[in-house]
């Protein structure tokens, strides 16, 4: 019996051009995405652009940072967080058709390590790479204070957006090297956890609130360049996916605060820039140095599709609340894809 041929990968359903290389992406907040589908892009020029997905045109653009924008996320539905290589995480609020900065949190300069944010009880926990090598600063953004803050930041101001709670310090700076990637998740049986990937290839798991290193594993021989996680909807098992400068992509199940190595896969060309696990935890996408976007199943780490549109390194990938995949590249283009929405 002949097996069915795998369908040809789709073309992008939409393309947007931001001129400067695209360095980070996030879709509009889940709470408002259905009524107002939008995507926010960060660029190597420091610009941040809000796009309408309906018209695929830029709605507003503003200078967010003096260096490349390496991370974008939502603190609450109407407060955007951005991180630049200029050593600042900024908090933005929208007023009609403009965005204004209402606070800053210092972080490491000239690194490529992103920050991570999670909500816990009535607080928002923000983990940022510290200016001390291999350390992570954990800030508390008071939700009530954040929602009530409407004043605009001017140079030299220090608005009370956050408090530094504590700093996570691994046993040895020399052994671990620089922080490369951060991810936070909340497991209902254990509370907030923080995944930290290091320059040494070490992957660590921390109790975000208790300031305790729970576990670690030598994940890759090279620096871990990309990381994300997903939650199995049937078992609540956390799966972490990591990639590095070589061609191997690995998965790790996190069971009772312990890493268990899962399936891995090797791609044709080395260099993984970014990884995004879809919200249902079933598939993940990678952005490669070879200009390609690859889609895999989480459970078996088996290849599902190779998407080819970009003409330069794919710096960032992310999924929307409706499972649309967005990819951003050094070529300055953002592509929107419909892939495996029924998987």
TrEMBL record:
WD repeat residue numbers: 307-343
Pfam families per UniProt: WD40 (PF00400)
RNA-binding as UniProt keyword: no
Stretch list, region Disordered: 1-22
InterPro entries the record matches: WD40/YVTN_repeat-like_dom_sf (IPR015943), WD40_repeat_CS (IPR019775), WD40_repeat_dom_sf (IPR036322), WD40_rpt (IPR001680)
SMART domains xref list: WD40 (SM00320)
UniProt cross-references to PROSITE patterns, sorted A to Z: WD_REPEATS_1, WD_REPEATS_2, WD_REPEATS_REGION
Keywords per UniProt: Repeat, WD repeat
Name assigned to this protein: Guanine nucleotide-binding protein subunit beta-like protein 1
Species assigned in the record: Candidula unifasciata
